[in-house]
Structures are given as structure tokens and as C-alpha cells.
Amino acid sequence: MDIGFDLLPVGVSELSNIRGIGLFPNPATDGRFNISLDAKQAIKEIAVTVTDITGREVLSRQYANPGSSFFEEINLSGAARGMYFVRIVADGEVISRRVSIQ
Fold first, then answer.
1. How far apart (Å, rounded) are the C-alpha atoms in residues 64 and 47?
2. What is the CATH number of the domain that holds 17?
3. Measured between alpha carbons, how far is 91 from 89 in angstroms, rounded to an integer?
4. What is the pLDDT of residues 43-99, one digit of tens each?
5. pLDDT at 11
6. 76: which strand partners?
7. How confident is the model at residue 28 (pLDDT cuts 50, 70, 90)?
8. Which of 6, 12, 83, 96 sits a CA distance of 20 to 30 A from 23?
9. Beta bridge partners of 87
10. Phi, psi of 9, deg, nearest 5
11. Contact 67, 56 (CB under 8 A)
């Protein structure tokens, strides 16, 4: 069962500042979904990019000094149904997830 949250495994990833990330609801029925992120230490910059299945960028946003907890609603209500890729870069750490718009 996928509830939209990932816990990062221990081991090599322990050096990562990111403790957990959520992308929900997934699938998004109205084109709106949320991104949440928790970090061990305050983050200086987060960049969020959403691309469609062909690689075309449909959204790009940057957030300065979000702290150690980040929550943002992404609104793709005008976008076509289908699969999208969400790329989050938090102080150089890259996280990629898929979201389905229905």
C-alpha cells in the first residue's frame, strides 16, 4: 500500500540531511497535490520542478530558507491527465518522485 510517504533507509543515506518526504494525494484527482519534507538541519534552498512524460517542464519554483520542515501545495489543475515527474533539490540533495494526475 502506497500512502505517499517514503522513509529513507539507514546506512549510506545516513549522511543525508533529508529525513522523510511525502507527495500526496497520489493519484491527484484535481491536479492538486502536496509536497512535504523534513530535514535534520535547516535547509537554505529548495527547488521543485515538475515535468510531463515527454520531459517538458510544467512547473518550476524555488523557495529560500524553508527551515527544517517544508510543506507546499502544487496546483496543476490545468494540466492534462497523466504521469508527471517531481524533482526536488534541497541544498544539493536530489529527490525524484512520480505523481499521477487523474
1. 9
2. 2.60.40.3080
3. 6
4. 999 999 999 999 999 999 999 999 999 999 999 999 999 999 999 999 999 999 999
5. 47
6. none
7. very high
8. 12
9. 49, 96
10. -70, 155
11. no
Specify the number of domains making up the chain: 1
Amino acid at residue number 60: S
* pLDDT reported for residue 10: 45
Domain enclosing residue 64, as ranges:
5-101
Name residue, grid cell 537554505: 44
The set of residues, in sequence order, having a beta carbon less than 8 Å from that of 25 and lying 6+ positions away, is: 4, 33, 34
Place of cell 517514503: 6
Q: Is 15 helix (H, G, I), strand (E, B) or coil?
A: helix
Are 97 and 28 contacting, i.e. CB atoms less than 8 angstroms apart? no
Question: H or E segment at 33?
Answer: strand 32-52
Nine-digit cell string for 64: 529560500
Cβ contacts of 91 within 8 Å, gap of 6 or more: 17, 43, 44, 45, 46
Rounded to whole angstroms, the Cα distance separating 74 from 32 reads 6
